[in-house]
Automatic annotation (TrEMBL):
SUPFAM superfamilies in the cross-refs: alpha/beta-Hydrolases, DPP6 N-terminal domain-like
Protein name (database record): Hydrolase
PANTHER family: ACYLAMINO-ACID-RELEASING ENZYME, SERINE PEPTIDASE S9 FAMILY MEMBER
Gene3D superfamilies: alpha/beta hydrolase, YVTN repeat-like/Quinoprotein amine dehydrogenase
Species of provenance: Pseudoalteromonas rubra
The keyword Hydrolase is annotated on this UniProt entry: yes
Domain Peptidase S9 prolyl oligopeptidase catalytic: residue ranges: 601-806
Keyword Iron-sulfur attributed: no
GO biological process, one term: proteolysis
Length: 817
């Protein structure tokens, strides 16, 4: 990277209060006039702010020239500007890097009316602006309304300390940013017609002036990828197609409508269907759907619990299945009762529907019971096909029913582990049942990926979405050959998909790779090839610096290979020493290879960290023997894997500083972080998000704590295995903690209640340890809202910068100490 100039901020090496250092005019780009010359400036109007703000997107890009109101203007260095004055508006742009958190004051001189934008967002309408800049590349745009003499215009930066510097370079690439990862356009829902002649996508993105509100657009395309219709306020994932592909139904503004694809005309078929969802064509003339009714608001002074499920806010909502006649609007109930029914599948030819319903039964792990029920609509009868402790979903298939459930389904039919080993029923398996539910066959015992969901093709074959090690993939199960074939989507993580199955089966798929952002693809199922329809990379990540990815595996103490991957900072210099972050799974699912997400590994690498992600024992997707080690372990083998894996990582990556290691995880991974602080001092700083500190209180108070513990602590309870519940709980070993620990938690978390972090915080405070507790207000178990997500991401990086880079300024800026 060629260095052109550096904005040095020191007047004296000993100075602690620094004067503003002028920025070289060669490093400031100028453009103007913008549009036609006019004596009426934005400040003379009632719409000044909007007029100015609307210019920023056009000025933020990499284009060398812009055209506004028929006037062409080119960017040029401010140092080359000869004009003293000119009409219209003018703008300046500065692009620079900072290699650490930088603070200071941007000061303008010679401009009478200016507007300062930093990274596309309005910062100030005055002659100065306070900058607080995290590591990375930044852009400042200054729009000037009135300048008497451009020769007298200058821009200076007053750094707070001697390390607060702006580095101006001529590099053509940009460091990946948090704003890119969250705001970039993505396809959030897809749907393809049964004949594959049309498809619908919902695309969303965020922008600063809309806050937490996503901007969405749902579009109907033909098979030539041409836009033929837009559906305002509709999600592509919730619409339904008629079997011939010539009509679809959708809900819009409280009305249920049909859209005729030949004429592009729509009509209202029903209204006032509050609580209705999951519409599907039962046949060409009617729709089947779920309809929920919530109880009236409880105004009593007490709540009488009728079971463990009553802790769930939706527990007393009743959901039943209905049929709607499209022509007349007539609605007919198909199920009834106090138990809610979930529609699993329907078969119009035989006039049957398949539903499931929960039975309150805590007798055995995971302390729930599901009934699979078939309703014969012609005869008006219902038949319970089976009762199961483990059950995910069921679909009609050729001469029977496919079911997805854990290995213990039908008395352990799917078990592939030793008789004395408990299984992990989060490791989904595929089964076939006869039409009466009596006879069953396991179809995936020798198939290591964990099956999450299925779709059945018209020929009886199955498309399964699976966890395949650290990838989310689609597999075709060929019934006649009893064989699984991975579909070649070209994606590491399949996010959403929709199937066309009228003629030649095809898929519409969205997803990412570990080092590539989202794409939309069409996949020919039996030819097993894909073509790209849409790619977010050129839209939002052009010239972005993406971390280099390397695979890194090691063998644990049991002789099992533990898979992992390492993200390397851009322009890595192996002669230097780098801090590193170690991340591991939460729950029992492996850490996927998604390009971004709640834990943005590519962003951490962009901030100068080597990132090691490993998949310790207990995760699904690696085979039943591997996942079974999660049961009744609560971190025992997992902790050993993380410690040994980190040591192997340090040996392999000699440029990682062993004295600057951070580790973090969420949920069960947050529990693992707390547990590791009681077992090792090899980490210099640790972060636990929504972690469990006391297995007993989580089991008893988390909304789903008893269900999860029914697998993770199968057959173990505080009264028969007190050692597991106490000695594996981090808080019972808090006196062994010496590592600085940050506890992060949403204050509205119902999965892992915030008290879990409070318990550990209390213990460590009383023990005089270095511990911080940050609650994200209004957040549940996951952090979704844009403003909270950025605060959360900043908090994690600022904490590690403080402890692993000896740079506390960002943390101090956020939290004052």
């Amino acid at each position: 990277m060629k260095l052109k100039s550096v904005a040095l901020l020191l007047l004296s090496a000993l100075s602690t209060s620094l004067s503003a250092a002028p920025i070289n005019k060669q490093d400031i780009q100028f453009i103007g006039p913008l549009g036609q010359a006019s004596t009426i400036k934005p400040y003379n109007t009632a719409h000044q702010q909007t007029i100015i703000a609307n210019l920023v997107p056009s000025l933020s890009g990499s284009e060398k020239a812009v055209s506004m109101l028929g006037v062409d203007a080119k960017w040029q260095p401010l140092s080359q500007l000869n004009a003293l004055t000119m009409g219209g508006l003018q703008a300046m742009k500065m692009e620079f890097s900072v290699n650490r958190f930088v603070q200071g004051e941007l000061v303008l001189d010679g401009i009478e009316k200016a507007h300062i934008f930093v990274n596309g967002e309005r910062h100030s309408d005055k002659m100065s602006s306070t900058l607080n800049l995290p590591t990375g590349d930044h852009q400042v745009i200054i729009i000037a309304e009135q300048v008497a003499d451009w020769k007298k215009v200058s821009v200076a930066f007053n750094g707070k300390t001697d390390h607060d510097r702006l580095l101006f370079t001529d590099k053509t690439t940009k460091a990946l940013s948090a704003k890119q990862l969250f705001d970039a356009p993505v396809v959030s829902a897809v749907s393809v017609s049964p004949d594959a002649e049309h498809y619908v996508t919902t695309q969303k993105h965020y922008q600063a002036n809309r806050g937490n509100q996503a901007l969405t657009q749902t579009t109907v395309f033909n098979d030539d990828d041409k836009v033929i219709f837009t559906l305002e306020g509709v999600n592509a994932g919730s619409l339904a197609w008629r079997q011939d592909g010539e009509q679809l139904v959708f809900s819009q503004h409280g009305q249920l409508k049909t859209l005729d694809l030949a004429t592009l005309t729509s009509r209202v078929i029903a209204e006032d269907l509050k609580g209705a969802s999951e519409f599907a064509y039962f046949n060409d003339t009617s729709l089947i759907f779920s309809w929920s009714k919530s109880p009236a608001k409880d105004t009593s002074l007490v709540k009488h619990y009728q079971g463990l499920e009553d802790r769930w806010s939706y527990a007393r909502t009743n959901t039943q299945i209905y049929l709607l006649d499209i022509k007349s609007g007539m609605i007919q109930a198909l199920t009834e009762g106090k138990q809610s029914h979930t529609l699993e599948d329907h078969d119009a030819k035989s006039n049957r529907i398949l539903t499931s319903r929960a039975v309150q039964d805590y007798a055995a792990p995971p302390h729930m019971l599901t009934e699979l029920v078939e309703f014969n609509l012609t005869q008006g009868t219902e038949t319970v096909l089976g009762q199961y402790r483990t059950f995910n979903e069921a679909k009609y298939g050729a001469k029977g029913i496919y079911a997805v459930a854990g290995p213990d389904f039908k008395n352990g039919l799917g078990r592939a582990v030793e008789k004395d080993q408990l299984t992990n029923n989060y490791d989904g398996q595929l089964y076939w049942l006869d039409q009466q539910g009596a006879q069953a066959k396991a179809l995936s015992k020798a198939f290591n990926p964990a099956i999450g969901s299925i779709n059945v093709l018209s020929n009886g074959d199955v498309i399964a979405k699976v966890t395949d090690e650290d990838r989310q993939q689609l597999y075709l199960y060929d019934v006649s050959k009893d064989r699984y074939t991975r579909l070649k989507t070209g994606l590491d993580v399949v996010e959403r998909f929709s199937i066309a199955d009228n003629r030649k089966p095809a898929l519409l798929v969205t997803g990412t790779q570990a080092s590539a952002p989202q794409q939309l693809k069409q996949v020919n199922i039996y030819k097993n090839r894909a073509r790209t329809l849409w790619d977010s990379a050129p839209l939002a990540y052009r010239n972005s610096e993406i971390a280099k990815l390397e695979e890194f595996n090691f063998t644990n103490s049991q002789g099992t290979e533990i898979k992992g991957r390492v993200y390397l900072p851009h322009n890595l210099d192996k002669s230097k020493q780098y801090p590193a972050l170690i991340y591991y799974y939460g729950g029992t699912s492996p850490v996927s290879r998604a390009f971004t997400g709640r834990y943005p590994f590519n962003l951490w690498a962009a901030n100068g960290y080597v990132v090691y992600v490993l998949q310790p024992t207990g995760a699904t997707g690696f085979g039943q023997r591997f996942s079974a080690q999660h049961v009744n372990a609560w971190g025992e083998q997992t902790a050993d894997d993380i410690i040994k894996g980190t040591k192997a990582f340090l040996t392999e990556y000699s440029y990682v500083d062993k004295n600057r290691l951070g580790n973090l995880g969420a949920s069960y991974g947050g529990f693992m972080t707390m547990l590791l602080t009681t077992k090792t001092d090899m980490f210099s700083a640790s972060i636990s998000h929504a972690g469990i500190s006391n297995i007993t209180s989580y089991w008893g108070q988390g909304w789903w704590g008893y269900l999860y513990s029914g697998e993770a602590s199968k057959h173990s309870f505080p009264w028969n295995n007190a050692k597991l519940y106490s000695q594996h709980s981090p808080v019972f070993n808090a006196d062994k903690v010496t590592t600085p620990l940050l506890l992060l938690h949403g204050d509205a978390d119902v999965n892992v209640p915030v008290g879990e972090s409070h318990t550990m915080y209390t213990a460590l405070k009383l023990l005089g340890q270095d511990v911080e507790l940050i609650e994200i207000k209004g957040a549940d178990h996951q952090i979704f809202a844009r403003d909270r997500r950025f605060q959360w991401w900043d908090t994690m990086l600022a904490y590690f910068d403080k402890h692993l880079k000896d740079q506390p300024q960002w943390w101090q800026h956020l939290y004052g100490k």
